Amino acid sequence: MNDLEIASYLDRGLSAQDRSRVEDHLVECSECRENVAGAEQLMTKLRRPRRLAAFAGLAAVAAAALFVVSPALMRARQPLDLVTRDANTSSTLAAHASPATAGNQSTIRFSWAAAPDVGSYRFVLSTADGTTVWSYSGADTSVTLPENVTLDRDSTYAWFVDATLNDGTTRSTGLQQLRVPSFTR
Amino acid sequence: MAVPSNDPLLMDSTAPLELNRLLLAPHVTDREAAWDELIARHTRLLMAVARSLGGDHDDAMERYSYILEKLRENDFRRLRSYDANVGATFPTWLTVTSRHLCLDLHRSRFGRLRVESGTDRSDSLRAVRRALLDLTEGDTPPDTIVDASSLPTDGLALRGDLDDCLKQALVRLTSTDRLLLTLRFEDDLPASRIAGILGMPTPFHVYRRLNSVLAELRKALQSRGIEGSDG
To answer: What's the predicted TM-score (pTM) here?
Structure first.
């Protein structure tokens, strides 16, 4: 693997197909695994102080999730009590269900405050067991879950956004918890 | 400022501004100023990389100088190879590239660094078997997972069957799950580092996923008539 492939893998910037190809190679190549692990360890060290600072003052990259509920769900008088929570502090972060219309499809939009001098953002949504459901890398400060990505009701998901600044440091929303309650409680 | 049109990077608005400024600079003085700006912006990152291979302050500064020398080499050839459209941010790419350069320097002085794996595939299979055992079996002591050298002939055959089945079950896992097992059982990395490599939010996600994958493997073995994993 060349440096650009390793960096793209660590930034979750590869397509699913390329990511799978890279992971197949990593399983077989201990030297490339060492390169990936070494670089990741360095990046973790570089972002650590800023990450702690970010927790202290979430205003810099305070995150909020905005959920748009379909008319069908609203008619059922079963408001989706979607809650996001900072798993580290248990403080609720300005999340709410919005009675906006979005066709017949439930859509979920995640947004976060812009970080200064940012290179890119990395958004990751995963299941409770850590399996990545969907990820995004780019410059936008909000993302809408694609229609082909469905979330199970009565399930808990985790998500976070890391902002990589141009000086190489990172700010983070910290781990957020997303609970999708049962529709038929 | 004139913008040459033959280099896609120069037209790429997603590349860092300071990098574009450097590669676009029409005059030597502009280029030197842009170079200084780029290095100043990333000094913390480059010094962290230079220090990461150990040694004293002089060792780190030597590596730092080497990184700068190599980044400048051949009209910034390495910096020109960065492509923002591939999916890596510039700081991540710079971390990987500068670490690579430090390793090259180390190899040129002391020979190839030994990858601290210390295990081979048979060790990995043994570790996975042990983990399968630990997951669900409370009454079978782990030392029943024995080395091939101490097994009787029929035991060797059984162990061979188990390994064959295990290999077949591993092939059916996703690439991420196979890498997860490799990082844990072959490289013996802690969950916190595995989480960082695989992009999992916390080490707890790694543990949960490991348990899930091991349960899946155990189920696959049981479906092939292999009970437990104490072969």
So the answer is: 0.58
